Amino acid sequence: MNTIRSSAMLALALLASSNVFATGNHAGGHGHDDEGNIGKPGVAAKATRTVNVDMSDTMRFTPADISVKQNETVRFLIRNSGALTHELVLGTEKELKEHYEVMKKNPEMKHADPNMVTLAPGKSGEIVWQFTKAGKVDFACLQPGHYDAGMKGAVNVTKAVAK
């Protein structure tokens, strides 16, 4: 009986520590840390500008190419003007592809990460992000079929000029 109880407790502990739950919710676990290759969550009060992004059923973001400066904190105001659920997820191309494969297998998955927002039709949301490294940060909609249809874009982060 103790063996069964111990096994059950171990299984519950492993489940509790997992990033993906049977209920379809997850948070974190996308292969990047908060100060990784794509930057880190920003503080809204420190945002230097706002970028409006529209998501539509044409499987496109408008704009799909955004330019920012290294260390800039940007407030993205995101609107879903379509009739389908869409999301905007910031990440590296590798992270986005890996996450997309998980989403195709678990389309009911809900998200709670600061680098993403999932929006029902007609709804708006925001992401506040600080781009700490120069280079390219990708973004995409990872709803099943949307990424394959071309619903992706990029934030081009230009190197900060030393003073």
UniProtKB/TrEMBL annotation:
It is found in: Periplasm. The keyword Chloroplast does not apply. Transmembrane segments: none annotated. Keywords: Copper, Metal-binding, Periplasm, Signal. The keyword Signal applies. Residues 1-22 form the signal peptide. Residues 51-157 form the Blue (type 1) copper domain. PANTHER family: AURACYANIN-B, COPPER-RESISTANT CUPROPROTEIN COPI. This is Cupredoxin family protein.
